[in-house]
Each structure stands twice: as structure tokens, then as C-alpha cells.
Amino acid sequence: METQPLLLPPLSDHGEVITFYAYRNDGSRSAALANLAVLLARRRAAYSPVLMIDWDLQAPALQQYFAAPRNHPGVLELFEACARQLALHQPNGICDDTLLAYEVLAAVDWEQYVLRVDEGSQLYLMPAGRLDEQYRERLAAFDWEALFRRCPALFRCFAAQMACHFRHVLVDAESGQGDTAGLCTTLLPRKLVMLFGPERASLEGGCAMVRRAASYRCSHEDEQRPLLVYPVAVQLEGDDARLRSLRRHGDGLRHAGYQQELEQMLADCYGLRQLSLDSYCDEVQLQHSRDEALQLAVQATPEGDRHTLARSYETLLAWLEPGHYPWQSQAQLAVLDQLALLPAQLAGNSLALAQARLQQELGQLYGQQQRWHEALACFEPALQLRQQLLGTEQHETLASKAAVAAAQFQLGQLEAAQILQECVAEARDRLLGAEHPDTLAARSALAVTLGARGCHQQAMLIYDEVLAVYGRVLGSQHRLTLACRGERAQQLFQQGEFEAARSAQEQLLAERKRCLGSEHADTLASRSALAWTMLQLDEPDVAHSLLDAVLQISIKHHGLHHAAVQQARAALTEMLKQTGSHAGQHPGQADLVPELRQDGALDAYDEALLQPLQPLHPLGPEVAQRTAEQLLALDQLPATPRPQGS
């Protein structure tokens, strides 16, 4: 290939450095980098300069993708020149490490180590080095650690200088945990793409390198810069769906899946209590074929075909290029993209209202992930905009107030939540009427907050008033009526009135089974709530059986790895822990393995609950109750004496 002179003026704004790292080298890392580089270079009408740096000096591969000449100087020669310049530096000269680094880089004329590899776009390559007969000998003799000690800022400044001239700088890092792998992952990038294959060592080694890079950034004052990490699972061609699912989710017993380990690693690195990679792991997976390792998939496949590796690279870029976090869902990315485009489409009040709508939608998505700080950060500006433009009592403004209050409640800001909920309830009562569904929903939300603040009498009064309206207007079997009954029963539980809570929960469980079916999500929620009440009433066997059934039904409907199954398993495990049960002592522990079983005893329990059902109004202590002995007999478990006075 004929070398072209470079015309690389500085960018108006800085680009970014992205390192690609894999603990084990199977070719997928270089393939991913080469394909993504082509995609990035051809965006924005091919005016964005993109640089690839082949820093895998032991096994350079990028030249082969672009038929680049083997005799072109590259990374090794560049830093050999830097070492020679540093040797000429006098101790009484420049003392500032950063100034010294930039002086050295200016002296070596870095542009001579870069060549253009695509005439259809501004795609450039800095190869590993001149692959002549002395290459291996020169590489073995070069001391990277000594170069770093001589000028610690050199590699950071090199990355910054490349980012001044290229929109994207993609670094192909050496595998393993050697010196060059460390500097490529720790000192250079703003973003780190960690690829890992099916082998356990590939995942563990990659996670170890990410933790090392994050720890270094946090502990060294000069290196405290953002580092966004994007883990990417590489599946082997021919793997079936069952095997891919097992690798991702684990077996639920001895081995955790890679998603769980990645979530823990990212949570530790970013100081987050919890995060979910469900959407990201659903979408971002690469299929690797060794036979096609040196082909550019983005050029070899037709555009628009979603069943291609090229589409997989495009999907990864949806998170990577804008700098979205991997725990942001695809739905959130869509809203964020819309927000970014709005200023070019609208102006004035129309722009502000559209921004408020999208902020509200984004906050709701964060709330679904239990990320309430982020949700509140979206709800509050949406509320402010709507109050300014629409007034304090318009429907959308009241919806924003309710959303802010809900987030405040989840964050423990109960007094602030109560104030807003009282405003919403009062305004909806006055504007819509006392029996409007929105008014009743606002009053129910207020009752939950009052109960959490210990205002139990006020909360119960609201619940009874709301239930009376629901029963009269919607009927006793409407989902809102049943939901409100569930909240009222939970309030009884919080007050410590466990017998009353038990009675209300039993009736609700029976009614939901009758109306919705024994395996509906709301029915399972009733079983779970009743289980914790039975535990408080010192009936652990019944409690275990109820949670056991919830887990089995969840597995039956969703498979082993659904969020509902994980939640049910966690609840049963927590209950077993609280009661001191062990894996071999309680039949419910069988829930922790994949086998399904039909819990006929619990079906009998539900059927028995249906028989003495009383009218729904009024809801009070006169509801029919059963003894613990009767409950246990219905579940075909040996009865145990209840403590005196219970």
C-alpha cells in the first residue's frame, strides 16, 4: 500500500481513547476493534478521523485487516525514539513531568508512525512496528517499566495528544497482565472494552484487569479521570441457546453466570449498590468465528440484515459511542437519543414541554430499575418545567408531583413525599372529584407514606374510605380494589397486627386466585406477603411452603434466570436464613435447583381458603380465621404447638 502524507490538524474539541482488552487472545479483540473502527470512520459523512493503534506487540494483527505494509514504523519505534529523547534530557532542564512529556512527543514527530489505510474515509493505523528480522530482538530489549519511571506522564500525554487529532483512538491492547497490557488499560483510555470468551479464566482475568485499572485511577492523583467500562461476551460460532444461557446466568447453585459477576464488578468499581445489565447483555454479544477472524464483517455483509455480526457491532456502538453506561437499558438509550435531538427540532415552550415529557419518561425507566436517585434527578426538572409553563394544577404537573413524591418515598424522604402527596390528593379531589381513579390513587399513595411515618390511624382511615369507593364504583373484584386491599393488609403487618393481617391476606389470596388464577403475578405477590406474616406468627413451615410455591411457579413460567425467579429465590433464601434452616433440612430448598414440581398441598390450601370467604365489606376482624393446626393440615405438614398467648 502506498503511504499517503498526513493532513491532521487539531480537532475543535478533543476526541477519546478506547482500549480493547481481552485476557486471552483468540482473535476476537482485534476483529472487534477493526470492524468498529471502520464503522466509526464512515459516520458523519466520513469526516471523522479515526486512529487504530496496534499495541499488541507480541502478536500484531491489525495490519492484516487492511493489507498495511510490514515495514512501516509504529508503536515500538515511536517509544524507542521517546526513550532516546529522554536520555538527552538534562536534570536541570524541564522539571514538570507533563511539560517534559509533550516536549519529547513534539521532538519525535509522531505523525511519521501513522499511515492511512482507507481511501474512502479518514481511517488511520499506527502499526505495532517495523516487522523486520530484528523486531523480536528489539522488542525483548525494550524496557517499558523503565520508560514509565523516567517520565510517568508520557503515556497519558501521548493519549491526550492523539485525542487532539483523532475523533476516536482505538487501542488494541496485549492480552494477559503484562506491562503493556497494564498501561493500555490503565493509563491511556477514557473507555475500556473488555472482551471475554466462554472460558472461566477469560472472564476472571478480564475482571481482574478492570478492577486493577479502576483502582489505579482512584488511588493516583494524576490519573483520576473517568473510565467507562464495556464488557462484551464473545460466543463461539455454533453454541446453542441453552449453553449461552448457562454461561450468562449460571446454574443457580454452584456457578454464577458472567452477568452476575460483571454486575458485581461494575458495582464495586463505580461505588453503586446495585445495577442491572439485563438489557445490555440481551443486546451486546459477539459471535466469533476463527475462520473469518481476519475479515471485516462490516464490509462482507449486506446492510440492514439484523442476523449479522455487523449488526452486533452496531448495537455495541449504541452504548459505546455516546458514552452511555452499560446498565442503562435500550429503552433509556432511545429516550436519551430523543432528548439529544430535540434542540434541533423544536424551540421555545414546545422544546421545554417535550423535554419535560421525555425527562418524565426517563425517570420512570430508572424507577423500574430501582435507581431512585437517577429517577428523582429526572422527575424534578420535569416538574419545574411543567409548573412554569402549565401551572401548578394541570394534569401533567400533578403527575410530575406524584412521581417526585414516589421517588422521595423510595429514598426515605418521607416528610417531603407526604407534603407533595397531600397537594396532589387535594388538587385532584377538587378538580376531578373524590371518586375519580386518579384521586383515589393519590390518596392510596398518601396512605402508604403515612403508614411508613408511623401515622397508622390516619393511613387506615384513608384505606377504608378508598376501599369503600372502589367497592361501590369499580366492584369488589377490580384489580384496583384488590391492590388497595393488599396495601391495607400490609399496613396491618407494619403495625404489628399480624393476626388481622393474616386474615386479610388469606382472603385476598383466595380472591385473586378466583379472579386471576393461582399462578398470576398478583396471586404470587399475595402468597409472598402471607408467607412473611405466617413467619411472624411462628409458623415457619407454612411460610416456607408459600414461598416455595412462588419460586416453583415463577420458574415454570419464566425459566431459571428471570428477575422474578431471582427475587423469589432471594426471598426464600432470606427466610431460610432467618429461621436457621439449612439446605438439607427443609423441602423448600429443592427450589434452588431447576427441577419443577407441582405443589398440590398449597393448591389444597388455596381451595380451602375459598370456602369460608365472607363478603368484602366491611373489612374487619370478623373475617373468618383458621387455627395454625388447620393451616398446617391443609399443607400436609405435621402440626406444631403454637406458643402460649400467640
TrEMBL record:
Pfam family, one: TPR_12
Keyword Cell membrane applies: no
PROSITE patterns: TPR
TPR repeats: from-to residues: 356-389
Keywords: TPR repeat
InterPro entries, A to Z: NLR-like, P-loop_NTPase, TPR-like_helical_dom_sf, TPR_rpt
The protein, known as: Tetratricopeptide repeat protein
